[in-house]
Amino acid sequence: MNERKHVIILGGGITGLAAAFYVQKYAKEEGKAVTFTVIEASNRLGGKIDTINEDGFVLERGPDSYLARKTVMTELVKDVGLGDDLVSNETGQAYILHNMRLHPIPEGAVMGIPTKVMPFATTPLFSVAGKARAGLDLVLPKRKNAEQDISVGHFFRRRLGDEVVDRLIEPLLSGIYAGRIDRLSLQSTFPQFVETEKKHRSLILGMKKTQPKQEKTPISKKKKGAFLTLKGGLSSFIEALSKAVPEENIKTGVSVRAVERLEDGAYSVIMEDGSVMTGDHVIVTTPYPITKKLFGGTLFPAGFHDTKPTSVATVAMSFNEEDVNFSLDGTGFVIAKSEKTSITACTWTSRKWPHTTPKGKVVLRCYVGRAEDQDIVHQSDEVILEKVLDDLKKIMGVDSRPEFYHVSRMIDSMPQYEVGHKEQVKKLRTAFQNELPGVRLAGAPYDGVGLPDCVNSAKVAVDSLFSK
Ligand code: FAD
């Protein structure tokens, strides 16, 4: 009898490739006869990860870095031999655009929660009434039904007031989730604040207590950034990850149409071209709307991911240094929703990530595409560029045109984690466990959108298939 198990992995983004790596690792370490095949629809691996390397520039079309404290990704980067290529971001002041002026994010604000009195009391970003309202957090009781999920917006509005939410917290978070803060699930995105309120009642006092004491950094030594990326861009990680497994185990340019369970408990994966592959297990990492089609709708809880994923576009532009007369020090800015701009954020890439830019050049990377205004993403490159340049002129006084630019669209790319998300994921996994016990769902739609979350979900999926 052939004991060899075959795992079919759908999708060759970071989650799918990480899953392949972990299956191979398990087979080697445990001496098990397990093989795998990754099936990727496009001709390129990496999914949302897509780096442009040209003329000494390293420009990202999608994600540009990951949170260093989520170490599962760093471990995998080291496992594939790229540990020496890891780079931390340069730290520096970040700004918020409000009333068309750039305001420094008040010192000590942690995810927008003030932990230092003076910078918060003196910032012109909030009115006196707004500051007083935020201070109510110190005396307000905790939420009674803390176990029940609530939106990030409602949670913070209750504790700190609308002004702090609209002018600071929302712009900071929308860069990560590109969604509506008043629908975004607190439990699935920032469960630590539920705990802070439970334990300390006041978020301000809780954050003050739990923030690590800031060690005085010697002037000669710069503070380390909270993010990491790779010298050659994130695509270099995808390349190393794909090379860590045999080439013949990855099929690109092959689109999956359906997955069916066979009578003997195995699975049949049917491709768009009619060909069929059978496997004992399937790890599914495709975007949610596609996953739903692959299995037919019945297993999927009503209402789950009903809100369309948001589309965003980024515009990376290179200027000659002497053409950008801009005196503020720092790494970029985010924008309050009330502002009438097309851009939602701008990273001063050459400052935040100096390795990405040749000497004498300045790279700015702007984001467009709010959840409420998706039209701009579908405009032509030229139209998007003009709108971005118009905003940069008003905000930063940048009056020149870029030497070159890249507009990158990521359509329906940001899954929306709405209130109740965690509960729905649980329901979905239970339904799969009952009906399709050899199938695992992993990747951005379920347990976190960050790159380390995706890597972790791949690891958990593989572990759960083989830990018996
Ligand atoms: P994907 O990358 O979407 O991979 C899924 C794969 O499935 C794709 O390659 C697709 O082609 C394939 N596929 C689809 N249909 C089929 C089919 N029928 N058959 C076979 N294959 C199929 N995260 C961070 O941590 N840091 C950041 O700085 C950051 N910035 C971001 C910026 C942008 C603009 C975006 C869009 C996301 C950002 N994220 C960031 C989030 C992060 O990039 C994603 O959550 C992550 O890359 C998702 O990886 P994945 O493998 O789960 O899915």
UniProtKB/TrEMBL annotation:
The chain crosses the membrane at residues 6-23. Keywords: Cytoplasm, FAD, Flavoprotein, Heme biosynthesis, Membrane, Oxidoreductase, Transmembrane, Transmembrane helix. It is an enzyme of class 1 (oxidoreductase). It is found in: Cytoplasm. InterPro entries: Amino_oxidase, FAD/NAD-bd_sf, Protoporphyrinogen_oxidase, Zeta_carotene_desat/Oxidored. The keyword NADP does not apply. Pathway: Porphyrin-containing compound metabolism; protoheme biosynthesis. GO terms for cellular component: cytoplasm. It holds the Pfam family Amino_oxidase. It catalyses: coproporphyrinogen III + 3 O2 = coproporphyrin III + 3 H2O2. Its EC number is 1.3.3.15. Its main location: cytoplasm. Its cofactor is FAD. GO terms for biological process: heme biosynthetic process. Residues 14-462 form the Amine oxidase domain. GO terms for molecular function: oxygen-dependent protoporphyrinogen oxidase activity. NCBIfam families: PRK11883.1-5, proto_IX_ox. Involved in coproporphyrin-dependent heme b biosynthesis. Catalyzes the oxidation of coproporphyrinogen III to coproporphyrin III. Belongs to the protoporphyrinogen/coproporphyrinogen oxidase family. Coproporphyrinogen III oxidase subfamily. This is Coproporphyrinogen III oxidase. It comes from Fictibacillus phosphorivorans. The lineage of its organism: Bacteria, Bacillati, Bacillota, Bacilli, Bacillales.
